[in-house]
């Protein structure tokens, strides 16, 4: 009689966890849990494991929210943990864009306010990325190519709707 293998224990990401991220074309990159679901991703591809000190000295490519399953499933194994610096504990601003009205707003720690297109341009959209999309984005970043997933969710400038003509002003 065959016995079923024990189910994999899901990994719970903790602030300071450093994860190894497999890249589609080979090698891997690194990310770090800042505060669930916020992560920082580092601008380096490596074919070998790097010590935590080396990873933490790398420039950050981007910070974004990530779906819990990226780490929880074991896809991105935790390879180290290091205490966060005070600046890493600060919550960044994100932008939101309403799907129908296209109105923009800034979001931080549950607070939201209206925003201009210019304010939103340098910001990440308030959206959780899947592991596959982060991997593709890192690959594109490291190759200095635009990422189609990132481009698709950037703030969109929408021309104001034309004002209706006053019927009493007909020619």
Which helices and strands, and how do they pair?
Elements (H helix, E strand, L loop, with lengths): L16 E6 L5 E8 L2 E5 L9 H5 L3 E7 L2 H4 L5 E4 L12 E4 L6 E5 L2 E4 L2 H4 L3 E2 L2 E2 L1 H12 L5 H5 L19
Parallel strand pairs: 4-10, 6-9
Antiparallel strand pairs: 1-2, 1-5, 2-3, 3-4, 6-7, 7-8
Q: Which features would summarize this protein structure in a list?
A:
171 residues; alpha+beta; 10 strands
**Element string (H = helix, E = strand):** EEEHEHEEEEHEEHH
* Spatial strand arrangement across the major sheet: 5-1-2-3-4-10
Spatial extent as radius of gyration: 21 Å
Number of helical runs? 5
Main sheet record: 6 strands, mixed
Q: What is the total domain count?
A: 1
Derived from helix and strand composition plus strand pairing, the structural class reads alpha+beta
Shape: globular
> How many strand units?
10
What are the segments in which pLDDT stays under 50 over at least 5 consecutive residues? none
Strand residue percentage: 25-35%
Mean pLDDT: 87
User: Helical amount among residues, as a percent range?
Assistant: 10-25%
Distance between the termini: 89 Å
Folded structure, characterized:
With 171 residues, the chain is of the alpha+beta class. It has one domain (17-82, 92-156). It has five helices and ten strands. It has helices at residues 52-56, 69-72, 117-120, 131-142, 148-152, and strands at 17-22, 28-35, 38-42, 60-66, 78-81, 94-97, 104-108, 111-114, 124-125, 128-129. The strands form two sheets. Strands 5-1-2-3-4-10 form a six-stranded mixed sheet. Strands 8-7-6-9 form a four-stranded mixed sheet. The chain is globular. The relative contact order is 0.17. The model has no long low-confidence stretch (mean pLDDT 87).
């Amino acid at each position: 009689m065959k016995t079923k293998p024990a189910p994999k224990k899901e990994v719970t990401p903790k602030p300071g966890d450093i994860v190894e991220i497999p890249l589609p074309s080979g090698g891997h990159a690194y990310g770090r849990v800042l505060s669930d679901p916020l992560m920082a991703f580092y601008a380096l591809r490596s074919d070998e494991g790097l010590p935590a000190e080396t990873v933490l000295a790398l420039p950050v490519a981007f910070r974004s929210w990530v779906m819990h399953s990226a780490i929880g499933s074991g896809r991105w194994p935790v390879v180290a943990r290091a205490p966060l610096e005070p600046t890493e504990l600060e919550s960044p601003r994100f932008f939101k864009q309403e799907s129908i009205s296209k109105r923009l707003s800034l979001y931080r720690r549950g607070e939201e306010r209206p925003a201009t297109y210019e304010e939103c341009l340098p910001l990440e959209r308030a959206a959780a990325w899947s592991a596959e999309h982060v991997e593709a984005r890192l690959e594109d970043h490291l190759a200095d190519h635009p990422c189609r997933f990132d481009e698709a969710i950037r703030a969109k400038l929408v021309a104001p709707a034309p004002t209706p003509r006053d019927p009493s002003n007909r020619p």
